From TrEMBL:
Gene Ontology CC entries for this record: mitochondrion
PANTHER family: SUCCINATE-SEMIALDEHYDE DEHYDROGENASE, MITOCHONDRIAL
Stated name of the protein: Succinate-semialdehyde dehydrogenase
Name of the coding gene: Aldh5a1
Subcellular location: Mitochondrion
Pfam assignment, any one: Aldedh
Length: 419
């Protein structure tokens, strides 16, 4: 474990030494603003640092035995080869979050990066080599969009693979789970979200607007934990919508990710833009109003204006499925019970956010929201020491934190008799 720890630590140091180049690779292949890409590299590297430290804390147990002539031990051992399948929206961090834990546990990994963003995975591989991680421990299998399904199937069905860790859509996750069932593999799944962002009458509206802006429009709305539905209580509804629209118009700048003032890069591809358009068209046809934005940006086909909709209902597509784009729909509600019921009506539950200054309400709502992660008066909640993951159809298992390494360990019970 000491050697694993040292190699992971060296890999972390090399990421920090090369952080500018790594960030530029992310912006080039994903489109996110350079400042966000730099933030991702820091976040990404922090998982290697964290798991370098956790590698030396894989403790077993000694259990008092029921018979005098026995001793009972519990050992933790690596599960074996882990197949890691990652998405394009965080081309570096989604890899280190899994691979850091797997290597710390003593597993080897095969990484299949998203077909849109293979370069970050290969750059990490180059640094892994430089860090002295032995050949064959960190493996990358880039592939085309056409081959993705076939490669995913091989990784999930091959008996040599003991564990699958996947971040991506719920639909794809279900297919991989079916494949993995054939050989009863260990699985971690971090799937789609549909995050509610509830603003109660007692909220500090200015702070709620700032949190809303950060949570919704980071990476142009293309994160699994970004808000998908805003629920705003009637007493402050109009004030919130007005201030939110002003903040969007004043603080967000659509542009090339390498341009310093850009806060909103392009969406990942044409299909992503079409989905945003479809959601807006559907909402407007059912009576929603466009407060700001609403169409493709003049810069080019994958750029879209940051958009805010009001008069939104739960019947609209944008409140029933994840948009994954720069669209903020606002639903007006009357009571706390109503807001919680709307939030929990989804079949997924990754992140949820709410703003309130009422301590009793904070406890009630935090406990009642059916999600794996809750931000209270906070729009950005991801960090290396906290367990990341969802409930319901948002996934299985947790990543990061002291819990993250357990996903790559088997528990073995040893009974020694005749003593």
């Amino acid at each position: 474990s000491q050697e694993r720890s040292a190699r992971l630590r060296r890999w972390y140091e090399l990421m920090m030494e090369n952080k500018e180049e790594l960030a530029r690779i992310i912006t080039a292949e994903n489109g996110k603003p350079l400042k966000e890409a730099q933030g991702e590299i820091m976040y990404s590297a922090s998982f290697l640092e964290w798991f370098a430290e956790e590698a030396r804390r894989i403790y077993g147990d000694v259990i008092p035995a029921s018979a005098k002539d026995r001793r009972v031990l519990v050992l933790k051992q690596p599960v074996g080869v882990a197949a890691v399948i990652t998405p394009w929206n965080f081309p570096s961090a989604m890899i280190t979050r899994k691979v850091g834990a797997a290597l710390a546990a003593g597993c080897t990994v095969v990484v299949k990066p998203a077909e849109d963003t293979p370069l970050s995975a290969l750059a990490l591989g180059e640094l892994a080599n430089q860090a002295g991680i032995p050949a064959g421990v960190y493996n990358v299998v880039p592939c085309s969009r056409q081959q993705t399904a076939a490669v995913g199937e091989v990784l999930c069905t091959d008996p040599l693979v003991s564990k699958i860790s996947f971040t991506g859509s719920t639909a794809t996750g279900k297919i991989l789970l079916k494949h993995a069932a054939g050989t009863v593999k260990r699985v971690s799944m971090e799937l789609g979200g549909h995050a509610p962002f509830i603003v109660f009458d007692s909220a500090n509206v200015d702070r709620a607007v700032a949190g809303a802006l950060a949570s919704k429009y980071r990476n142009s709305g293309q994160t699994c934990v970004c808000t998908n539905r805003f629920l705003v209580q009637k007493g402050i509804h109009d004030e919130f919508v007005e201030k939110f629209a002003k903040a969007i118009e004043k603080e967000l700048h659509v542009g090339n990710g390498f341009d310093a003032k850009t806060t909103q890069g392009p969406l990942i591809n044409e299909k992503a833009v079409e989905k945003v358009e479809k959601h807006i068209k559907d909402a407007v046809s059912q009576g929603a109003s466009i407060v700001t934005g609403g169409k493709r940006h003049s810069l080019g086909k994958n750029f879209f204006e940051p958009t805010l909709l009001s008069n939104v209902t739960t019947k609209m597509l944008c409140t029933q499925e994840e948009t994954f784009g720069p669209l903020a729909p606002v639903i007006r509600f009357e009571t706390e019970e109503e807001a919680v019921a709307i939030a929990n009506a989804a079949n997924v539950g990754l992140a949820g956010y709410f703003y309130s200054q009422d301590p009793a309400q904070i406890w009630r709502v935090a406990e009642q929201l059916e999600v794996g992660m809750v931000g209270v008066n906070e729009g950005i909640i991801s960090s290396v020491e906290c367990p990341f993951g969802g409930v319901k159809e948002s996934g299985l298992g947790r990543e990061g934190s002291k819990y993250g390494i357990d996903e790559y360990l088997e528990i073995k019970y040893v009974c020694i008799g005749g003593l």
